[in-house]
Structures are given as C-alpha cells and as structure tokens.
Amino acid sequence: MSKAHAHIPLSGRKPVLYLGAALGVFFLMCIAILTMLLSGKARLDRHEYRASNYHLQSLFHSSRIRREFDSIEHLFLTSHASETSILVVNSYDNMFGRSASIIREELGNLRSIQEEFADPKLVRALNRLTRVFTHFLEEYSAMRQYELALIDQLHPIYHELGMRIDQFDQFHFNGFRESDLPALKADVGRQFFVFTIFTTGGGLVIIIGLLRQLLISLRIRHRDEEHQKILMMELDHRVKNNLAAVLGLARQSLAQSASLEEFSESFIGRITAMARTHEGLARAKWEGIQLNDAVSLTLMSHLHQEPCRLRIAGQSVLLPSRTAMPICLVLHELATNSSKYGALSVPEGQVNLDWRLANHDLHINWSESDGPEFEQPVIPGLGMCLIEGLIQHELTGSVNFDFQVRKYTCRICFPLE
Amino acid sequence: MVAATRKLSLFNGLKLLLIEDNFLVALDLQQMLQEMGCQVVGPAASVQDGIRLIEDESFTGAILDINLLDGDCSPIATKLRERNCPFFFVTGFASPVLQLRELESVFRLHKPVVSADLMTAIQNHLVHHDRY
Lengths: 417, 132
Description:
Strand order of the largest sheet of chain B: 2-1-3-6-7
Number of strands of chain A: 11
Mean pLDDT of chain B: 83
Distance between the termini of chain B: 37 Å
Structural class of chain B: alpha/beta
Helix content of chain A: 55-70%
Order of helices and strands of chain A: HHHHHEHHHEHEEHHEHHEEHEEHEE
Strand order of the largest sheet of chain A: 6-8-9-11-10
Number of helices of chain B: 5
Oligomer: heterodimer
Radius of gyration of chain A: 38 Å
Largest sheet of chain A: 5 strands, mixed
C-alpha cells in the first residue's frame, strides 16, 4: 500500500491520514479476501483479484452500492470468463489516481487503434471520450480544492457522461447508468466496452471495462470490411468489363448484320454463350472450369439436336477463369457457323472436337467432314474475326484453318498459364 | 452523310496506340477510333507487347487499359512519360489500383466507353495537352 501512496496525484492529506487509511484498507482487504474465498471466487486472476478487493472495499463503505452487489459481482465473473478486465475503484485518492492512469492508458490504446484503422467514427468517439474524461478530472480536482459536496457536484457530470456515452452505442461503446446494471451483463457478454461512473454515499465509484476484447473485435470487423470492399471492387470491375465487352459485341454484330433478324439471332446467341460460361464459372467460384464442362455448356443446344454428329473427346483440363470466356465464345462461333454453313447444316455432316495438353500448350481441333461442298472459308467476317482475335489477343495463341473440299479443320493452340 | 464525313475527318489520321486486353473491348475501341479518323497502333493485350510497340512504332498519343494480361500497365505508362507522349486510361476500376502513385492523376475514362466521351478525351488529353 505504501507504494501506492507514492503515486497519489491529488493528495492534500497529512501522512497520518494515509497510515490510517492504509490500515483501514488492509483490514478491509482481509475481510474481502476471506469473503471471496468463502464464496468460492478465488478463481479470479491477480489483476481482478486486486480489483475485487477495491470493489469489495467500496462495498463496505457504501450501502447504496451493496444494493447492486449481485450485478457487479456478476460483472466480475463474466469479465473473467471473457478475459475482459473490469476494475472497480473507490474514491480514495490513490485509487482514483490509478483509475485515471488506466483510463489514460486505454485512451492511448484506442488512439493507436484509431491511427491504425483511421476510422472517422472512432476519432469522433475518442475525442468525445477524451473531452468527457478531461472535464471529469478538472471537475473532480476543483471539487477537492474547494471541498464541495461530492455527490451534488458529480451528478451533472455523471448525467453528461451517461448521455455522451450513449452516443457511443453505434460504435459499440456502451455506457450504462446505475439503473442499467442488468443490461450490463449482456454488454459484457458481448465483450463490449463498458465505462460508467456513479456516485455513492461513500464517494465516487468508477467502473472501467477495459478494451482488450473491443480491440480484437474492432480488428476483426475492420478486416471483414476490408475484405468486403475488395470483393465489391472486384465485382464492380468485372461487371463494367463485361458490359463493355457486351456493348462491343453488340456494335460489331450490328455493323456486320444485314437485317435486324440476323443481328438479333447472332447477338443473342453470343450473349447466351457468354452467360452460360459465366454461370459455369460462378458455380465453380471463379476457380476455373473443366474444358469438358465448358464445351457441354456452350454446345448444349447442338449436342441435344445432333448427339451423334458431334463427337467430343479430350483429357481432363482445367481452364482458368480468364481463359474460359474466349474459348467458349470461339466454340460457340464454330458451332453456330457449322449449323448454318458447315457440316452440321447437312444431314450426313460430322464434327469432331478433340483436345490434348502438350508442354503446357492446349491444342484444340475442330474438324468438320462430309459437309456441304465448299472450298473457301465458310466463316463470315465477324465470326472469323472473333475466333482469331479472341485466341490471338486474349490467349496469345494461334489459329489455323485447313479448308478442303467438303471438310475443314480449325486448329487452335495456346499456352495454358 | 455530312455528319459522317465530318466525323471521319475529325482527327485526320491522328496515330494512337491502343492497349486493351479484352478483345471485344479492343475491337470496339479500335472501330470507334477509326470512325473518328484515327489510325490505330495495336491493339496490344500485354505489357510486353505494349512496350514492343512503343519501341517499334511511332504515334502521337496512347489509350491504356490498366489491367493487362501480364499485370498493371504502369511500365507502359512510365515509358510513355519518358518519351513525353500523352496518354489516358480506360478502365473498369472506380478506385485507384495502379502501382505507381504518380499515375493516379492521369485522366481515366470509365468502361463501358461511349464514342462521344472517347472523342472528348482524345481532344482534351491527347490533342490539346500542355505538359508531359
């Protein structure tokens, strides 16, 4: 206790008073420890153990506080379970000085958190808390100086504090009044910050819920918000890029279409192919898609109509998200073209689609045979432009067409990341 | 017809470098630029190809997508700055994502791009540019 005396910040009393106070405290502490042991609360750790002594000590001084005994006791136990330290300090100068330094320390902690997160809400809450605390200290020392009645003077401060702390609710700072003690239990259970002050017959009692858990939950919340922000940005980016691509496709299809019917058929077909790929990729959480699945999705309608004339064979290959969209669009162009002008446009025509992976290069072959008689490319302008452009530009690959009488092969090759 | 002719002659052969990794978007931009009377160098889809074009070709300005096949377009932007060549970005990103902080002040045209906005951006940032 003598060590504690050395830190008394606001003392004006004579040493003999301290000796008396120390003896009194010591005596009360003995009673407190005995009480605690008897009631089976010796589980409290050292910090809380000492805090309990202060707490119990103040209880012996105050009949009003004794009324709240059950609630406060519960606060201790809950705080122990959730590792939140709760300190109850009575109005003795040394203890007040200690609680003041703890509040200062915690304000400092909050400040460093605020710097770390730069959260404007937290800045405002902190500034308010600091103002309230500074105001409280000033009032308190002024009162000591003029030896005014504690209770009357503290009432307005208490109300001010309670009111201001109420404003912290949205930041998960929960203040409470004497009448709110039952609610406090829930707050501590949620591991929120609790800061309250109330006056008693014996003087001033300050309860501070320290901020360890708050700091942790703030950090977690901040991390979640950051994660959410990144996801939103990524989504925004993808949507805009896709819209830009769709618009580009619309303008190109429009420019190359002879009639509105032709435009609507080709455009809707291409957008549907994009949508199906998107669906397949979304189902795979954008972690890529099996080429086999991409082929099934894109050529679905052709496969339903011509199951035997469209043969598909290839090993298991995982297409990364970025690669899937161009590949599916190219397959769509090849299939659409085939059913219009190529092998799939005549009853005896046959299409073979196969692929293989060699030295990180994916080779895809689209071969048509027994098609209608043609010697020159049967793929019209935009279709050819899309096939070549998508493979060469987006996949840094190559496309070769080998046209012969009644058959042709399209050979695609590109590096698979 | 008169409008079309005026549009065609607007930039009268202004040679612009186009860097955009999405083929459909690149094709669209290329066509828009050509309709405005620009000559297009590229389009290139990667930083590597972009740098090669800067070294091999000549042009008066550049339009850059930010995210390319092989990463952020910062190396291309830096090279253009070194050569005092004006450029602006075309991007789907609303927030800055560039590695180089000093590029954050460069004008950004947001996707999807409309022809009229593209024209204004070229006029303001590639034709009448004061410093680079």
